[in-house]
Specification:
Strand 4 and strand 5 form a beta hairpin. With about 160 residues, this protein is of the alpha+beta class. It has a five-stranded antiparallel β-sheet, with helices on one face. It is built from four helices and five strands, in the order βαααββαββ.
């Protein structure tokens, strides 16, 4: 692990704490995350044809991801509530049996939106699973990861590979 830093969510006694970011300057921050839902080819075909009984999987998963980004601090204990200024959640078929979800979150603030982007991608993937589980219980959610972050003290980072 390169450049390992002490854990910032622990105080000197090792107790959990929320990091104080009040002295940090506001900067534009962006994070992009992804998740992949692997399914049977017939399930992906049903999604694309609008044949899933619960409705439009892509539209509902997109809305779920956007809502999740806005509620991240309610879910992750040490996550700061942020003024999210933009969220996009894109779902695109990949091959015959995968749906790739990409979430992009923006803010102008004192801390980054990596957790918001990861939460958006994850919840969108969980929504796909929920809406399609009646036709494909063997779906898998894979590859949830941060792809890119911009802004703040650490600058621009892009995931390798």
């Amino acid at each position: 692990m390169a450049d390992a830093q002490p854990l910032s969510h622990l105080d000197e006694q090792g107790a959990a704490r929320m990091v104080d970011v009040s002295a940090k300057p506001d900067t534009e921050r962006v994070a992009v995350a992804e998740a992949v839902v692997v399914m049977e080819p017939a399930t992906l075909a049903l999604i694309q044809e609008g044949g899933i009984p619960k409705g439009d999987v892509i539209a509902v998963a997109r809305i779920a991801g956007i809502m999740a980004a806005k509620r991240t601090s309610d879910l992750i204990p040490m996550c700061h509530p942020l003024p999210v200024t933009g969220v996009t959640v894109d779902l695109a078929p990949e091959g015959a049996a995968q749906l790739r979800i990409t979430a992009r979150v923006k803010t102008a603030g004192k801390t980054g939106v990596e957790m918001e982007a990861l939460t958006a991608a994850s919840v969108a993937a969980l929504t796909v699973y929920d809406m399609c589980k009646a036709v494909d219980r063997g779906m898998r959610i894979e590859g949830v990861r941060l792809l890119e972050k911009l802004g703040g003290k650490s600058g621009h980072w892009v995931a390798p590979g």
